């Protein structure tokens, strides 16, 4: 009985931890499918978190989500201008954008909330139990008694999958990412496809950052994303550049972290860091293409010739 | 020569743009930009102690990692995993260091440095295999390994390397013999000198050796280089990446052996990423990396003073670093069609 309770708790925590990761990874999946690897989503997430905090403190958690999204799009726009517009190296541009966001958010945050480091307490998104489903054993609490952002991620998975693999726009986007020259010959505007994919990806990263503040932590701190944007990039790989895969991979990362907390709380002398490493090691295996036959988009990281 | 001046111009403009944007931004935010920049300058260059004991100490890992980044990028590869390689070097150096009690420095120091080099290089073996055998982007694989390295440090400082009382998440202090000597009259460890010498050595390799020339050919036009049959592309790429990671590992070893004398988490304030700006601003040229490394060391040293004296968060200097990289990228993109390769090609045409 107690074991079942612990399992349900761990699973619920895993879903909560996985939510921002999944959101960011879904957005990055779109960008990478269009041929753009955006390391700037770490920065977009951080700005999304700050936007979420400011919005929520002014006008409630709904406004926080909105402002977080806008902040993520703005950061992505900067990245897109340099990496897609001017055709600069994507990886280096993304790194620079993230560095800049760390600096800007740290500075703006102090400007708003003072240097004292007093934890501001924000209105957060309450869990919304879904009628009937929330009563299911085990999964009811984990998947159906969560804040709205979890359902947002849940809805985004099939939606983006359908968009990518069942629509003409998705086909154009994937063509741009697979072979930009061929896509252009077929009449696809590679640049436009990539800019749109990056901006949508930025919106997802922004929501992800806001989720971190509004559904998990309830406050903003300097560098609070702590590499989650980069983790999302690993999740995209492990999810085989597929939104469904990204959702599952995010859950795996969430589970690893939740187990760590559970072990620490239980005071077990298990080297929990091994759990933390596991998803990354799986990602490396996935990178080698050992699991399945899906490969990275052919033109990933390469600018238009 | 003209290209060098042109390059210097772009670098100078990027630096000025970074500082200008910082000043304007701080002004808009209601801070006093003059006081901020003064504090920044004083913290970095205000006294002999500040310059040698803070700025140059900070510059040492930046130079080493920046050299490594340049080494890989000259061959056309992006090593984004320096942060993890740095930690592996730090772990290995600590391991040797805590077991070195009673050793003479003549044995302990080479052992510490060697452990750092080897551990850093070992951390990139998998990405190298993935790149060469499966064509996996090394930028992703090296990035992923940073997180594994983080977890490994945590495992070490709470496990095998934890200090004997078992209270704090850090290692025991390393033996005296394993600590780098200070340069006379300073609080700067000898690792700085090693970094400078390595920069000069790499400069010679890049400019004067057949290997350095072929590496550049590989980075400039990988297809052409491979087809020519004169460039063993895979082996050279592997060597460049291993060397790149070894340098990051050495940086980690020196940080333990010259600064912290113990291993703990968050030992690096993001050296691995700042060093990218260091290498790019120097346009991948080792002698210039010494200069830009010191410059960024000064920025980070000054940032601390800025926070203390002018109440401005130290992270604000990251904005300067970001602006510098972005301006450089845009400058490259504006003058030519594609971004990084021409930077590499540039070195061929000019005299490095």
Summarize, please.
Chain A has 305 residues and is an all-alpha fold.
Tally the structural domains of chain A.
Answer: 1
Mean pLDDT of chain A: 87
Roughly how many Å apart are the termini of chain B? 9 Å
Low-confidence stretches of chain B: 347-352
In the CATH scheme, what's the topology name of chain B? ABC transporter involved in vitamin B12 uptake, BtuC
Q: Give the class of chain A from helix and strand content and strand pairing.
A: mainly alpha
Counting DSSP H or I runs of 4 or more residues, the number of helices of chain A is: 12
**Can you tell me the CATH class of chain A?**
Mainly Alpha
| Count of separate structural domains of chain B | 1
Distance between the termini of chain A: 61 Å
Please state the CA-atom Rg of chain A, rounded to the nearest Å. Answer: 19 Å
Major sheet attributes of chain A: 2 strands, antiparallel
**Sheet with most strands of chain B:** none
The number of distinct β-strands of chain B equals: 0
CATH architecture of chain A: Orthogonal Bundle
Commentary on this structure:
The complex is a heterodimer of chains A (305) and B (352). Chain A has 305 residues and is mainly alpha-helical. Chain A has a single domain (2-114, 122-287), classed as Orthogonal Bundle (ABC transporter involved in vitamin B12 uptake, BtuC). Helices cover 72% and strands 1% of the residues of chain A. Chain A has a two-stranded antiparallel ribbon. Chain A is globular, with a radius of gyration of 19 Å. Chain B is an all-alpha fold. Chain B has one domain (2-349): ABC transporter involved in vitamin B12 uptake, BtuC (Orthogonal Bundle). Chain B has helices spanning 2-28, 33-45, 48-74, 82-98, 105-122, 125-134, 138-158, 191-208, 210-220, 222-228, 233-260, 271-281, 286-310, 316-335, 340-349. Classes of the chains: A mainly alpha (305), B mainly alpha (352). Chains A and B meet through α4, α10 and α12 of A and α6, α7, α12 and α14 of B.
């Amino acid at each position: 009985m107690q074991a079942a309770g612990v399992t349900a708790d761990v699973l619920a925590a895993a879903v909560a931890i996985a939510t921002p990761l999944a959101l960011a990874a879904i957005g990055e999946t779109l960008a990478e499918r269009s041929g753009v690897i955006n390391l700037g989503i770490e920065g977009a997430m951080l700005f999304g978190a700050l936007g979420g905090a400011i919005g929520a403190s002014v006008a409630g958690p709904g406004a926080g989500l909105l402002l977080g999204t806008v902040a993520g799009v703005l950061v992505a726009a900067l990245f897109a201008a340099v990496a897609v517009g001017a055709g600069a190296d994507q990886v280096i541009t993304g790194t620079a954008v993230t560095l800049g966001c760390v600096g800007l958010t740290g500075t703006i945050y102090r400007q708003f909330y003072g240097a004292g480091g007093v934890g501001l307490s924000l209105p957060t998104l309450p869990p919304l139990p879904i009628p009937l489903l929330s009563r299911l054993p085990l999964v009811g609490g984990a998947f159906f008694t969560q804040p709205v952002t979890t359902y947002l991620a849940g809805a985004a998975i099939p939606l983006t999958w359908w968009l990518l693999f069942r629509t003409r726009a998705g086909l154009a986007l994937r063509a741009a990412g697979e072979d930009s020259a061929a896509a252009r010959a077929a009449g696809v505007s590679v640049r436009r496809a990539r800019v749109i994919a990056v901006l949508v990806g930025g919106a997802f990263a922004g929501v992800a950052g806001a989720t971190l503040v509004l559904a998990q932590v309830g406050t903003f701190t300097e560098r609070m994303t702590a590499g989650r944007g980069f983790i999302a990039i690993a999740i995209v790989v492990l999810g085989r550049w597929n939104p469904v895969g990204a959702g599952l991979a995010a859950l795996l990362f969430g589970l690893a972290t939740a187990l760590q907390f559970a072990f620490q709380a239980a005071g077990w002398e298990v080297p929990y860091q091994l759990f933390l490493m596991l998803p990354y090691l799986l990602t490396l295996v996935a990178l080698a293409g050992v699991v399945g036959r899906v490969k990275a988009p052919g033109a990933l990281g390469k600018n238009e010739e | 020569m003209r290209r060098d001046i042109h390059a210097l111009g772009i670098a100078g403009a990027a630096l000025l743009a970074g500082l200008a944007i910082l000043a304007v931004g701080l002004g808009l935010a209601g801070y006093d930009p003059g006081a901020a920049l003064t504090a920044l300058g004083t913290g970095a260059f205000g006294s002999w102690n500040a310059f040698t004991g803070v700025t140059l100490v900070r510059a040492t890992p930046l130079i080493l990692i920046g050299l490594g980044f340049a080494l890989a990028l000259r061959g056309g590869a992006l090593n984004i995993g320096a942060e993890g390689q740095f930690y592996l070097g730090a772990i290995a150096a600590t391991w040797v260091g805590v077991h070195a009690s009673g050793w003479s420095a003549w044995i302990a120091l080479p052992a510490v440095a060697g452990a750092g080099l080897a551990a850093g290089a070992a951390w990139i073996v998998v990405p190298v295999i993935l790149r060469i055998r499966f064509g996996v982007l090394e930028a992703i694989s090296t990035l992923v390994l940073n997180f594994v390295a983080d977890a490994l440090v945590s495992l070490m400082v709470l496990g095998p390397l934890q200090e004997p009382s078992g209270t704090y998440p850090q290692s025991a202090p390393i033996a005296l013999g394993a600590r780098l000597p200070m340069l006379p009259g300073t609080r700067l460890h000898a690792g700085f000198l090693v970094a400078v010498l390595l920069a000069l050595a790499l400069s010679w390799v890049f400019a004067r050796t057949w290997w350095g020339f072929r590496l550049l050919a590989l980075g400039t036009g990988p297809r052409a280089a491979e087809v020519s049959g004169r460039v063993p592309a895979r082996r050279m790429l592997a060597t460049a990446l291993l060397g790149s990671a070894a340098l990051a590992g050495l940086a980690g070893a020196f940080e333990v052996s010259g600064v912290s004398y113990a291993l703990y988490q968050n030992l690096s304030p993001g050296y691995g990423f700042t060093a990218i700006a260091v290498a790019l601003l120097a346009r991948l040229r080792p002698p210039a990396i010494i200069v830009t490394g010191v410059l960024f060391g000064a920025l980070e040293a000054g940032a601390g003073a800025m926070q203390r004296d002018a109440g401005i968060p130290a992270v604000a200097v990251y904005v300067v670093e970001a602006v510098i990289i972005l301006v450089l990228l845009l400058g490259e993109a504006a003058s030519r069609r594609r971004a990084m390769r021409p930077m590499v090609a540039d070195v061929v045409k000019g005299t490095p």
